[in-house]
Amino acid sequence: MDEESLKKLQAELGAKPSGGMERMILQTARPSRSRGAAAPAPDAFPDRTAYRKALIDFEDAQGAPGLDALVGKLQALGLKTSVARGVQAVVVEGAPDALSRALEAEEVEDAEFDRAVDLVRPRRPSEE
């Protein structure tokens, strides 16, 4: 994570009450395909569904070591974690000071506070 983003997020966390709980989404780097193992070949599978599953499993395995290392560090800080392997992200919940330290982990590429998302209900043609 770049230094400017890190300082901004840490300042926001520093302004939060120390006894409170916050939730953040930490993004790790996507694994590169140049890590040694070759991706599965499409012609080795009976159909597209089997190939897609094998490709997802392969990409998860490529990113697993870095993601697992990060989760271990986060849990050592006393943070609750929920992993989204397919997108190389970890949702973390805990005290602001622990989250601030978590942002410094080398595996963290980007971070964002969890927030409510407003869903817009599409208009029906009769409502226009």
How does the SSE layout of this entry go?
Elements: H1 3-14, E1 22-28, H2 48-76, E2 80-84, E3 89-94, H3 96-102, E4 108-113
Could you walk me through the main structural features you see in this protein, from its secondary elements to its overall organization?
There is one protein chain. The protein has a four-stranded antiparallel β-sheet. The model has no long low-confidence stretch (mean pLDDT 86). 38% of the residues lie in helices and 19% in strands. It is built from three helices and four strands. α1 packs antiparallel against α3 (96-102). The protein starts with a helix and ends in a 15-residue tail after the last strand. By secondary structure, the protein is an alpha+beta fold.
Please outline the major beta sheet: 4 strands, antiparallel
Uncertain runs are: none
Spatial shape:
flat
Q: Count of helical segments? A: 3
Structural class by helix and strand composition: alpha+beta
Mean pLDDT: 86
Radius of gyration: 19 Å
Could you estimate the helical fraction of the residues in percent? Answer: 25-40%
Short description:
This protein has 128 residues and is an alpha+beta fold.
Comma- or semicolon-separated keywords:
128 residues; alpha+beta
